[in-house]
Amino acid sequence: MSIRRRTDFDTRVWKFALVQAGVIPEPRPGERHQAAREHGMHALRHFYASVLLDSGENIKALGTYLGHGDPGFTLRVHTHLMPSSHERTLRAVDEVYKAADPTAGGPQTAQEW
């Protein structure tokens, strides 16, 4: 099978895979797959972005990977895909405190100034 365009891949490979996985129903004979952004390549693109953001990739790099010319655009479009940033932040701060020497400072150090 020759796939020359993104739409060919979407209908011949991607939608077929979604049907096989039970994500979307198979179209009736003679009909096309239902047109829905959440079932097309757009969903795969968002999945890719969410995986990278969740693993800590920065917005500028992600924008480059997605072909965006403006990191601000990437931030506006994909910010909602960063649900674990709060937890990641808490872990980062916890790690700093775990690594700190408890005898190297504290409230008494501030009072010495």
Strand tally is: 0
The radius of gyration is 23 Å
Q: Percent of residues in helical segments?
A: 55-70%
- How many domains make up the coordinates? 2
SSE series = HHHHHH
Subunit arrangement of the protein: single chain
Mean pLDDT level: 80
Q: What is the SS-derived class?
A: mainly alpha
Number of helices: 6
Low-confidence stretches: none
* Termini Cα gap: 75 Å
Shape: elongated
| Percent of residues in β-strands | under 5%
Biggest sheet details: none
Short description:
The protein is mostly helical and 113 residues long.
Write the layout of secondary structure elements.
Elements: H1 6-20, H2 41-54, H3 59-66, H4 71-78, H5 85-99, H6 107-112
Helix pairs in contact: 3-4
Q: Which key features would you list for this structure?
A:
6 helices; 2 domains; mainly alpha; 113 residues; 0% strand
Describe this structure in words.
The protein has 113 residues and is mainly alpha-helical. The chain has two domains: 1-27, no CATH class; 40-99. The protein contains six helices and no strands. It has helices at 6-20, 41-54, 59-66, 71-78, 85-99, 107-112. α3 (59-66) crosses α4 (71-78). It is elongated, with a radius of gyration of 23 Å.
